[in-house]
Give the backbone structure.
Amino acid sequence: MPTKPAFGFLGLALTMLLPQTALAEKPLSAIDWLSESVKTPVAQGEVSLPPLESVSNEPHSQNGSRSNLPPMANEAKVSTGAIPDTVATTVLGGPSLDAVGLLPPAVTGFPHDIWGMGKSAEIATALTKVNPEGVPALQSLLITLLLAEAEAPADSRGKGDLLLARIDKLLAMGALDQAQALIAVAGASASAELFRRDFDVALLTGEEDTACDVLKTSPGLAPTLMTRVFCLARAGDWNAAALTLRTAEALGNTDETEDLLLSRFLDPEQFGDEPMPAAPTPITPLIWRIYDALGEPLPTATLPPAFAHADLSDRAGWKAQIEAAERLSRAGAIPPNVLLGLYTDNAPAASGGVWDRADAFQRFDAALSKGDVPTIEQRLPLAYARMKDAELEVPFAALFAGQLSKLQVSGDTARIVYELGLISTDYERLAKQGNGAKDARNVFLAGLANGSVAGLTAPDSMARAIAPAFTDPQMPADVADLVAQKRIGEAILQAMLRIESGLTGELVKVTEGLSILRKLGLEDVARRTALQLMILERRG
């Protein structure tokens, strides 16, 4: 083990000896798996570890534990009412992190004061609760709302609490690219909490070296012990990494799990064939990355969706890559072309599950590329069935509905082509082509695509819940109050919450949610949502 000191021992010891209560209290996160990568801002008078860039200028050890370390992974780069008891009031207009966004009102169509006089905490709570899983139109609307550039809420005072809540929701959905872009606009080093989230995104996307470099040039960010050891090791400064850990151990400032994991990380050979320590709960991106570096990657299937990004790496097997892409596609977190690329990347090596989907997808895609209509009619039904099994109909439609609509097909293939057109973004135009059978269900679907179902027969219970929203939409009183206070963002969230509730209980909530969307002028979203509710048949 390297022993040469790489920085002042006294400074490190003083920091380690500080009582834990001296540290500033860290804000709570809406998600519990964030890495403890940095401490909250250091209070005046506290002693902190020196910045990473000043840790060591010593030559790196060319022997000892470093030579035996395995390669790192990814080396390449509700309450029932919507109105609170009181409404916040404050002066608007000052710069605020909460106003940061990627999409201006000209793109979103939302008013610039979309949060009105709402309270940041209540908006954040609604964001935490909403989960439009299984309804891609609502997932897309939610991501747009999270990325919207808008005036900060009335009580923001520039603290950035709502920005963090928006980022956390994106992380919870697995939308890492979107979250990272939002953090970049705000400035990853603007606060410890922003960097904390940026660091986790970097860990899951294989860009941890870049994140560690940010720590070197940001003296206002104080890395935790595990982050410091990890980043020093990534930079090749194994002497300083080992000294940091051993000093913390001597002062009793490591827990057993942290000690065992970091010790193995720095010198795996000393543990021989001993089993790896059990992973702590919750598993954070930093914990996951260290296990991966030691050749013991933890499966991501049971972890939050964000972890699936780690399996999109070329280092993961093809099966794991496809499963990760399928999971993220269902969440609306990645574009359909990612799925297309992975499904067609190799020849399936076995049968069942993922392999059957890849095989059916490839056979259909090959027939479509050749324009072979008889073969398309033969292969499309199976490919569509496999996509339905994985709840990937909408990404499939995004990829192929336009091409298929130009073909003259018949029978079951014509029905599928018609459905794919209705769940694509070009639903209104494709509905007018009228390739579907003229039964009550298809006539009703065509009416929805055109925004008018007056006089049409609702073919099932879902259609009966949808119809009133398109014949006589009524704004619920509590949501009307939100709108009157210009709290349009919260009204949109209420629409989503009601539709979600309707799918698991009273269908009248579906009526309310769709009515809210239409009353707010979100006609396209309302139509696409209604079509998806009927065609995808997602019921809780």
Residues 98-191 form one domain. The chain has 25 helices and two strands.
